[in-house]
Amino acid sequence: MSNAEKKYKYSIIVPVYNEQDAVQPLFTEIKSVMESINEPYEIVFVDDGSIDHTLEKLKTLSPIKIIHFRKNFGQTAAMDAGFKNAEGEIFITMDGDGQNDPKDIPTLLAKMTEGYDVVSGWRFDRKDDFSKRFVSRGADYLRKFFINDQIHDSGCTLKAFRSECFENITLYGEIHRFIPGMLKWQGFRIGEVKVNHRPRTTGKTKYNWKRVIKGLIDMISVWFWRKYSGRPLHLFGTMGAFLGTAGVLLGIYLAIARIMGKIALQNSIWPLIAVFLMLTGIQLFVSGLLADIAVKTFYDRKRTIYSIKEVIVNKDRNENSDT
Q1: Which residues, at least 6 apart from 105, have a Cβ–Cβ distance to it below 8 Å?
Q2: Which helix (H) or strand (E) holds 67?
């Protein structure tokens, strides 16, 4: 859908999971800020399978679009659903726990006028506990090594994107943190602004050691996808050729040495090592061919990993009263 066909200028996308006490005040803040901007907008909340009263609270709000998942699929899936169902020219994402400040939205949008396609928030003064900040700091160093998105705080959900950023992006796992890096590799301009970060006053954090492990694995996956998604045979084929050649050379050396009577092989492990290297090389090369086929198949398919139960659209009450 081109920008000329978009219904709104802005789409505010908020993934939520068990945030029954936060959604109503957050919605009120977002609505107040967006009305002051005086441009057409929509507010999209993605209920990621909440098991408390989050959905019921959302249904009392308007104007709002609610995407209701059948079960909990995770924040990345919720954001992907939000992007695919949003109808704005610019997407603004933020956490549903109230720690991101909607008053920073105009700052993001002002930065975009400088020609940026993505503007990421930087929680310069974080209000999280020490353990979370410590783990995040370590993850930042790894992210800079593997992803190198050249921003300070990729984990901050408060971001603004031009909608065309997601025309060729597939989100999976826990890779929502690495979206700026993925877009940077595609040539989009990435900017960053300092934003306010508020302490959590309701609900419980969803951050735990499982998310840390998943995030690390996905970081490596994104790195691999960046370097070898279009040419996996280059990686596996090179490794296979190296190991296979080493096995062949070792086998030739052992054979010549045995013929010349310089070594005895009946009790030696070296012939097994030579065979192992050759077989491993063949296996890696074949794996590269299969991966190459799988990549081509992937690019020919479009599927999602989540299931939407319903999409609810509550129009503005004033609008409803006129019809």
Answers
A1: 12, 30, 33, 34, 37, 92, 160
A2: strand 64-69
> How many Cβ atoms from other residues are within 10 Å of residue 317's Cβ?
9
Nearest CA-CA partner of 172 in 17, 14, 304: 304
Phi and psi, residue 276, nearest 5°: -60, -45
- Packing angle between helix 130-146 and helix 209-228, nearest 10 degrees? 10
Q: Which residue has the tokens 């595609």?
A: 186
Tell which CATH architecture fits domain 3-228. Answer: Alpha-Beta Complex (3.90)
Contact 104, 121 (CB under 8 A): yes
Handedness of CA 13, 15, 20, 22 (dihedral sign): negative
Buried b or exposed e, range 200-237, using 16+ CB within 10 angstroms: eeebeeebeeebbeebbebbebbbebbebeeebbebbb
Structure tokens at 300: 């020919």
Query: pLDDT by residue (tens digit) across 200-239?
Result: 877 676 665 566 676 677 667 767 766 766 677 777 888 9
Q: How many CA atoms lie within 13 A of 271 on its CB side?
A: 11
